[in-house]
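TOKENISE THE FOLD
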Amino acid sequence: MTATTAPHSIRSLLLPGLATLIALGILIGLGTWQLQRKTWKEGLIAQIQSRAYGEPGAIVPETDWSRWRAASDEFRRVRVTGTLLNQFETPVYGLAPAAPGGSSAQGYYLMTPLRLADGAVVMVNRGFVPMELKDPATRPQSEPTGEVTITGLVRAPEERNMFTPADNPGKNSWFARDPAAIANAHSLTRVAPFYVEADATPSPGGWPKGGQTHLDLPNNHLQYAFTWYGIALTLVGVFSAFAWRRIYPVSGELEQNEETKP
């Protein structure tokens, strides 16, 4: 390297270096985000393991509903008794979890209010039906009357994001399992801030099918983090080799660079 080529070589690294730094920051950020997701997933798995098995308990009493928090109660196995308000059955669009080797099925989760003996209401996700069974008339045995007992998991309202379509209660078109929104559409009061997701106990007539939550959650976030960090390390190596060749070109490259100068 000569004194005349060094500044030119270093200046030629400014834009590639800036692009590399930006890409490196993104890759490290993605790896760190996966580590954060790993911590969150481990906490969720611990919650499920400690709450979702064993004998079912009672739901949180109505007097405590204003203080209810998912972090302390979600995925707890409970049993609740009341009367289903089948006239307010609400089909929420969704996908049934794929079976091993299969694919997800489109359909609806049936959210039905359950009126308790004291008049309060708990929304129940009774389970999944395929697209062609949205109309209750196609499954006349699926709406039991009288007092029923449902065992299942306490679930928090489904979170919406920028990709969640807006609900249209007038057309009975729903896209989020949100007890408050469904209760408001049907003018129901004293409604729990959570819902109960029914277990896989068979329903009359075979539909809906409960127990759709998979409790065995995969946790591959550490692997994903290593992948992003590995790509970041590779990027550093590639840029280092590139920069070295620019600053310390081999003799043939140096002669070629000199020949191409104006």
